[in-house]
Write a structure and sequence with these properties.
It contains 21 helices and 14 strands. It is α+β, with helices and mostly antiparallel strands. Among the domains are: 2-163, BirA Bifunctional Protein, domain 2 (2-Layer Sandwich); 169-238, no CATH class; 488-597, 2-Layer Sandwich (Alpha-Beta Plaits). A five-stranded antiparallel β-sheet has the order 1-5-7-6-4, sandwiched between helices. A four-stranded antiparallel β-sheet has the order 12-13-11-14. A three-stranded antiparallel β-sheet has the order 8-9-10. A hairpin with a 7-residue loop joins strand 6 (103-108) and strand 7 (116-122). The chain starts with a strand and ends in an 8-residue tail after the last helix.
């Protein structure tokens, strides 16, 4: 089994080739899509579109296309099928680090004597990072060696005879091999050319750099034991350009590791700061609860003082208010007690809002969200703050992908020989112009999305926070003594006994039906049931209504209807019945209803 890997720019061409062959020489490749991860497999157009959509996570990566072909030895054809070829290809994908991005594995059946498949992968990983292609020849060689051994495949001649040939090498060929090995090992750790040459010098290998008339280094050669080879003679990866590419990759990897270490340290500092902030928030929360309790105690003391003062004046109250004064004090106490947890809740919400005003950043948001996770009744606020966290992160990513690339774009814009030549330099120059205009200039080309994101990044980052009053719970406002007394004076009570014989199906549920009717008319009801010795259900419906209710006529009509029905018995005081049936009460009810229908609200008529 052998492999061939190329890195390119266009997904459209390489995907179309899998199904239709070369553009200038179309042919049926008899393609079989063995697997497609993150892309659709129903057509070349859909697959290309999905790959291109994925590369937008890192639009600055020009060569985003990874294409590897795996060809199997003809001796292995009899033991290969699509299932086994897929397993081998998946193993290759994992060993080459391509399993963290979009990829497709396609087998071709158009050459029976050449069993082979193709792997197309996106060098833009799912997290937007770049899949490295440095040293892919050596990594692929090692991956093939492991897969051949794992699946019992026939090795190519070079792999099988490598050790024997090494023992037979002599003279210049032996020196050439030793130079390659030394360079391969030195390139594993060196991050710049001086470090690389120093490592080689320690192994008695000297290097000579060649410069042009302008003084620019254009080539390199290596000497060991008196034998000299140009870097390009040792392999493309050992030419001056190949060495510089690998050294740049190593340097970037080292920088990334250092950046990761710094970010880890910063993350630890943020965690400690968040922990301290959480402790402060907890202390503030406890203080708010204490203040709420103290406020409730203060209000209770004030209420007691008012009650004492009112007790002295009770004799001066109207008779109806004196009648209900004692119960009114109990009613006020119940209202105050009901408002205590509401006041504590509102104080807590205000404390969260004040904390975010003092710390309007991602750390402040995370601190408040940690507190909210253990707080009931604030799910809506939690969702709103989680959206703010997402908005902050989105804005930060947009800034990093636009203005964060400015320094790299300036270097790229210098181009060949520092003259701004080349396609990449022109592309970088256009992006720098977009950044300078903060996205107000939107070109009608491939940089359109970059300009749109730049305009978004130029906007100020969203400021976390919320208005506390929007999440406060309303407190209950107590009635005045006069209103409370009038309400209690207007209350009346009736009891309706309903009989539902067990053998009469049509009577089932009529107590519940009567209850629903009276409740819809504004009456307060309570329904209980019991069974007599014969299995008949006896229901007792307690009805409370107010003579001040605009629905009084309907309640009275319903009670009169029940009084005249078999199986119903209405029990009420004669005076209450007379009041609800009084002609004056009916006339007042009719006037109220007429006033409401004309928009007067039943008052002043």
């Amino acid at each position: 089994m052998i492999s061939r890997t190329t890195i390119g720019r266009s997904f459209g061409g390489v995907v179309r080739y899998q199904f239709e062959g070369r553009k200038e020489q179309p042919s049926d490749k008899q393609a079989e899509v063995l697997v497609a991860v993150g892309v659709r497999s129903d057509s070349a157009a859909h697959m290309s579109a999905d790959f291109n959509r994925g590369r937008q996570l890192n639009p600055n990566l020009g060569q985003a296309v990874w294409h590897t072909s795996l060809s199997f030895n003809p001796d292995d054809a009899a033991k290969l099928d699509s299932v086994k070829m897929l397993a081998i290809a998946e193993g290759y994908v994992q060993k080459m680090g391509l399993d963290k991005t979009q990829y497709a594995i396609i087998r071709h059946h158009d050459q029976p004597d050449n069993q082979h498949l193709h792997i197309i992968a996106n060098r833009v990983a799912d997290d937007g990072q770049t899949i490295k292609d440095g040293q892919n020849f050596f990594r692929s060689k090692q991956a093939l060696k492991e897969l051949i051994q794992e699946y019992g495949l026939t090795p190519p001649q070079g792999l099988r005879a490598e050790k024997q040939h090494l023992a037979q090498l002599q003279g210049a060929e032996l020196t050439k091999h030793e130079l390659r090995q030394a360079l391969h090992q030195a390139l594993a750790t060196a991050t710049d050319r001086p470090a690389l040459l120093a490592t080689l010098q320690a192994q008695q290998i000297s290097a000579r750099e060649f410069a042009n008339k302008a003084g620019e280094v254009t080539g390199i050669s290596f000497e060991k034991d008196g034998t000299v080879f140009k870097g390009s003679q040792l392999g493309r990866g050992y030419s001056l350009a190949g060495l510089d590419r690998q050294l740049a990759t190593n340097h970037a990897r080292e920088q990334a590791a250092q950046t990761a270490a710094r970010e880890a340290a910063a993350h630890m500092q943020r965690q400690v700061a968040a922990q301290l902030a959480g402790q402060r928030a907890e202390a503030e929360h406890q203080a708010a609860e204490r203040r709420a309790v103290q406020e409730a105690e203060r209000q209770a003391a004030q209420l007691a003082q008012r009650q004492a003062a009112q007790a002295a004046k009770t004799a001066e109250l109207p008779a109806v208010e004196r009648k209900w004064h004692a119960e009114y004090q109990q009613y006020q106490a119940r209202v105050a007690q009901h408002n205590v947890p509401i006041q504590a809740h509102n104080a807590q919400v205000t404390a969260y809002s004040d904390y975010l005003k003092a710390s309007p950043d991602a750390t402040g948001l995370q601190t408040v969200l940690q507190e909210l996770a253990a707080t009931k009744g604030l799910g809506g606020l939690q969702l709103a703050l989680e959206r703010q966290v997402q908005d902050l992160a989105s804005h930060a990513r947009t800034v990093a992908n636009t203005f964060g690339q400015e320094e790299a774009l300036r270097q790229q814009a210098k181009g060949l020989f520092g003259l701004g030549l080349g396609a990449k330099a022109r592309e970088a120059t256009e992006k720098l112009e977009i950044l300078a205009n903060q996205g107000r200039y939107v070109p009608d080309n491939e940089h359109r999305m970059f300009a749109i994101y730049t305009a978004l990044a130029a906007k100020p980052a969203p400021v976390p926070g919320f208005e506390a009053r929007a999440y406060h719970q309303p407190e209950v406002v107590a009635l005045s003594l006069a209103a409370y007394a009038a309400q209690r004076e207007a209350e009346r009570r009736a009891v309706v006994l309903v009989s539902e014989p067990a053998h009469e199906v049509h009577t089932t549920g009529r107590a519940e039906a009567l209850q629903m009717t009276l409740k819809s008319q504004g009456a307060t009801t309570q329904l209980t049931h019991r069974l007599d010795a014969h299995g008949n259900r006896l229901s007792e419906l307690v009805v409370q209504y107010s003579l001040q209710s605009t629905e009084l006529q309907k309640v009275s009509r319903t009670l009169d209807w029940a009084q005249g029905r078999e199986g119903y018995q209405v029990q009420e005081r004669a005076g209450d019945q007379a009041q609800r049936q009084a002609p004056g009460q009916r006339a007042a009810q009719q006037r109220r209803e007429q006033g409401e229908s004309q928009g007067y609200g039943g008052r002043g008529m």
